Amino acid sequence: MTARWRAICALFSLWMLSTLVPAVGLALSSRDWLAQLGKLGIVVALTIVWSCAWPALLLAMPRAVAGAAMVAANFVMVAFVMISAFHLVAYDQLPGLSTVYAIVDTHFGEAREFLSLIGSPSAWTAAFANGALVILLGSFCWRSLRPDTAPTPSKLHLVASLLVLLGLPNALWNRSKWTFNNPFTFALYSGREVLGYRADLMKVTHATPARLNTSVREPKRRALHLLIVGESLTSTHMATCGYARDTTPQIDAPRDYLRVALCDVCSPRPSTALALRDIMTPGGHYRERPFLERPNLISTLQHNTYQVYWISNQALPVDPKESMASVWSTFATMRWFTNFEGFQYDGAMLPRVKRALAAGADRKVVVIHMAGSHPAYSARYPRKFNHWAADAEVPASVPRRHDPDFLRTPLNEYDNSVLYTDYMIGEIMTLAREHDVASVTLFSDHGQNLGEKTPFLGHSSDNGPRQGYLVPVILWIGKSALLDDAQRENLLRNAKAPYQTDQLFATLLELYGIDTADRALRNSLLSDEYHPVPRACDAME
Questions:
Q1: Strands 439-444 and 223-230: what pairing?
Q2: Average pLDDT over residues 209-237
Q3: d(CA 413, CA 248)
Q4: Are the C-beta atoms of residues 311 and 356 closer than 8 Å to each other?
Q5: What is the pTM (predicted TM-score) of this model?
Q6: Can you give the pLDDT at residue 301?
Q7: What is the DSSP-derived secondary structure letter of residue 538?
């Protein structure tokens, strides 16, 4: 057998084995193992074409650089295969853009917490076993491509290899498995997408935000509002939305506010960075504009007589240029971060909330960005909120994909984190009453999977599952809110309709007394013109 064909066979074997190993482990741990093996077969078939292509490219290179190219290509494949194997076992699907966004926008402490939650022995075993396999087979390929034995490929073979490796998959199956299961095209595509978006965000902080054609009702009237951004808070684990455990006693407590809870709500995206991008910018025709040309909520409030205070217990930006989630705070009048190590409880924000509410401005919006229920769940609440022990029985009404003991401990820890978030809401509502706050709005960036319908924890990927998109929206409307009876009745009626949080922009403008003639911004829950929009989660299970 020639060196060329030995290299091709080695790479073919590499991809067969590196995809089979994690999938077989996943199949053995899942009841629908036939479906998993069928999914594996598709992935293997898609990788056969391109996996036979790139050895010829190395053969065509000058022999002096072929070795370095082989090492670089092998490094890319090791990283890609390890991440793919881990992701497949942990999440029942291969990595997508949401995975890349999460990796780019994280920090060491958060990554360590998250990996400690989802890093099952089978996932780690699959990752390292496949990584070792790539290294071994890569070494075999290099021995086959040594300068003294490597043949010179034909021009036809080189042209065909280039088409298959770079051109054909992206031209015919853009954003398909052809692109995402090829480590080189996936790296090019996702890198361009994510780094381009991040670069745009950095430009936003130095650009003059686009302005909306708006007017303010009673601009001299005192108006205080609180906007609470929850983290990984799924409505399916809140008593106020029908959960069997009493996880929301403070949210459900009677107060001198009209409380309206929306439970049939989806986030537009399964990750914080992308969800906040869609929530903080208006919908409708504005989504067709380049990102840099869209207005955003914080600058719009500033242009309409409000001062905005941003208080965050999310981790500090990953670099001096801001993270993709924190960039919106750069438009605020004042911002404070309370989380320096990744382990700070949300209660650390309360002194800052008090200070913001006591500040001199009569018209202000205080944004409170919580760490909430982000993995690892046990790091999100003090010990006194350990209401459900690690081995507590899971409520009988909770659907379980596997046996009743499956993921029992993290589910109980998650419910404790929701209980602590509820405590925080109670403390904030006490401050709201003391300062005559006109409205308090709570929503979550995205939901969380707890093993009910899928054999994994944490965030959803681009294709679901649905629970990772399910979130609450809860509004408390005070007597000082600038709303008439018709708007309150509209809110109560529209709260029963399906909702997606990227429509909050219009609702918050009307709630805060900001009017606009733009029909794209009139799909408000307070309006009799409200109509549900197609949601990202509607086609998911």
A1: parallel
A2: 92
A3: 15
A4: yes
A5: 0.78
A6: 95
A7: T
For tokens 């799924």, name the residue.
234
**Mean pLDDT computed over 16-42:** 51
Write down the domain spans for the chain: 3-199, 222-521
- Amino acid 226: pLDDT: 98
Helices (H), 52-181: 54-60, 63-91, 97-104, 108-118, 121-144, 155-162, 168-172, 177-180
Q: Is it true that domain 222-521 has CATH number 2.30.40.10? A: no
Interatomic CA distance for residues 499 and 519, integer angstroms: 18
Average pLDDT for residues 359-374, to the nearest whole number? 93
Q: Which of 73-77, 271-275, 298-302, 534-538 has the lowest mean pLDDT?
A: 73-77
Give me the DSSP letters along 54-86. HHHHHHHS-HHHHHHHHHHHHHHHHHHHHHHHH
As a whole number of angstroms, the distance between CA 469 and CA 113 comes to: 21
CB-count burial class (<10 Å; 0-12, 13-18, 19+) for 180: buried
E-state strands within 186-242:
214-216, 223-230
Q: What is the pLDDT of residue 334?
A: 93
Euclidean distance between CA atoms 146 and 3, whole angstroms: 9
More confident residue, 470 or 145: 470
Q: What are phi and psi of 256, to 5 degrees?
A: -80, 40
Average pLDDT value for the chain: 78
Helices (H) and strands (E) in the chain, counts: 18, 12
| Contact (Cβ atoms closer than 8 angstroms) between residue 58 and residue 146 | no
Rg value, the chain, Cα: 26
Answer positive or negative: Cα dihedral of 85, 87, 92, 95.
Answer: negative
Token digits for 53? Answer: 């292509």
Q: Nearest 5°: CA angle at 509, between 317 and 256? A: 95
Which ranges of 205-324 would DSSP assign to H, the alpha helix?
249-252, 272-280, 297-303
Q: How far is CA 439 from CA 24, 134, 222, 358, 479, in A?
A: 52, 57, 12, 16, 9
Q: E-assigned strands of 318-466?
A: 334-339, 363-369, 439-444, 449-450, 457-458
pLDDT tens for each residue of 126-179? 667 666 766 665 566 556 555 455 455 555 555 555 554 554 444 444 444 555
DSSP output for 479-498? TTSS--HHHHHHHHHHTTS-
